[in-house]
Design brief:
Layout: H1 12-24, H2 30-39, H3 41-48, H4 60-72, H5 75-84, E1 87-90, E2 112-115, H6 120-124, E3 127-131, H7 138-153, E4 157-160, H8 166-176, E5 181-185, H9 198-207, E6 209-212, H10 222-235, E7 238-241, H11 249-259, E8 263-266, H12 277-283, E9 288-289, H13 293-300, H14 322-330, H15 339-346, H16 350-362, E10 366-369, E11 372-375, H17 377-389
Parallel strand pairs: 3-4, 3-7, 4-5, 5-6, 7-8, 8-9
Antiparallel strand pairs: 1-2, 2-6, 10-11
Helix pairs in contact: 1-3, 1-4, 1-5, 2-3, 7-8, 7-13, 8-9, 10-11, 14-15, 14-16, 15-16
């Protein structure tokens, strides 16, 4: 019977009503979210089928369109098609439902269609979004793949949108590291989009998860890509934008994450690249600059998951005592100098300078030349290396 709860305690009538609504309503519709909150899922579905009073807050034209969609919706058929494709439907209240999606309030998904074996709720608890431009540069693709691989190797789930460019590179990076990844689609999860990523999305479904709000067979539209991004933002602990122009949809994801109180991060690029302009705009605001997986984990991970200190190489002269370094710095770059001249330049006595010079000779920094002292080739190379590090 439709009212009998299933194994997860959700009545079948409630689940079927939500499946019906995913066919009738557009994802992210806050007005529809208010209907569900005020009237309940089943009553909202009943009214959209033409029974009962019209739901408030819609124009005549929109109401007619909703009724027309409702007339063609068949939740039983959608559920059967999903089962045949190895797809399950999750409702709020299911044990597998990620509770962080509830932060979206009235724009929360009505339900999620899920393809893949892992438990979505568990995977989402330790996940990071990696998003960016579709028409990315080789640098952007490399950074996305490297970041995703590093995150996957440290047990993090990489979430992206399955698109060309940065999204695809992020998914491939995680898969290449035999890690976990989730693709959030703006179409039916049984209908891979873009078509050129059919094999990639199939592989994600086999090794990870493919999820979406739209029922089987439904197609993507420009608006659906944009509202899909709020799910990516809400599902994850933080969002990393690798490359994005000023009007990129990836910035929509980042701004949605900021509104939800999630951390946003950006990978810097060349100042001359238009594809880095949007990222740099984020970095001038609330976002954090990251360059590798360790940086990301330090910001979204647990206490103690710190990135290593970023330091240049230790040069031989760095190991000298300050007084010895001053004497070494007092020697000319070319030719020899008398001990008295070196002492004057170093600000010390001649006896002290001579003692330091013999110490430096034993370490291979200086050599005696007639009555003077000069730098060895080792010392000159060390100075040049030091200057390159500056």
């Amino acid at each position: 019977m439709h009212g009998v709860p299933d194994a997860h305690g959700i009545p079948d009538s409630e689940r079927l009503a939500r499946i019906f609504l995913t066919r009738v309503l557009e994802p992210g519709d806050e007005r529809a979210g208010q209907w569900i909150r005020d009237y309940g899922t089943e009553e909202t579905a009943r009214r959209l089928r033409g029974a009962g009073a019209r739901l408030p807050g819609v124009t005549d034209r929109r109401w007619a369109g909703l009724l027309a969609r409702a007339g063609r919706a068949d939740p039983g058929q959608d559920r059967a098609a999903a089962r045949n494709a190895g797809v399950r439907f999750l409702c709020p209240g299911d044990p597998e439902w990620p509770l962080q999606l509830d932060d979206l309030e009235d724009s929360r998904p009505i339900g999620l269609w899920v393809r893949g074996r892992p438990a979505l709720r568990l995977w989402a608890l330790r996940s990071v979004a990696v998003v960016g431009a579709r028409a990315c540069t080789p640098y952007g693709a490399h950074m996305a793949a490297t970041l995703a691989a590093g995150l996957a190797e440290h047990g993090w789930v990489v979430v992206s949108g399955g698109a060309y460019g940065i999204d695809g590179a992020a998914h491939r990076g995680a898969l290449g590291a035999t890690g976990a990844t989730i693709a959030v689609l703006a179409c039916g999860v049984d209908r891979p989009y873009p078509p050129g990523h059919t094999s990639l999305i199939t592989r994600i479904a086999e090794q990870g998860l493919v999820i979406g709000e739209l029922p089987p067979g439904d197609h993507p539209t420009p608006s659906r890509f944009l509202v899909r991004n709020r799910v990516i933002a809400a599902l994850t602990r933080g969002t990393v934008v690798v490359e994005a122009a000023h009007r990129s949809g990836s910035l929509v994801t980042a701004r949605a994450a900021q509104r939800l109180g999630r951390l946003t991060m950006g990978v810097p690029g060349p100042a001359t690249s238009g594809l880095s302009g949007g990222v740099h705009e984020l970095l001038r605001g609330e976002s954090v600059l990251v360059t590798d997986a360790a940086d990301v984990i330090e910001h979204v991970g647990d206490i103690g998951e710190l990135a290593p200190d970023r330091r240049g190489p230790v040069l031989p002269r760095d190991l000298l005592e300050p007084a010895a370094r001053r004497v070494l710095a007092a020697l000319p770059g070319r030719g020899a100098a008398a001990a008295a001249d070196i002492a004057r330049e170093a600000g010390t006595t001649e006896d002290d300078a001579v003692g330091r010079l013999y110490e430096l000779r034993s370490l291979g920094f200086v050599e005696r030349h007639d009555d003077g002292w000069k730098l060895t080739r080792q010392a000159i190379d060390s100075v040049r290396q030091d200057h390159r590090q500056c």
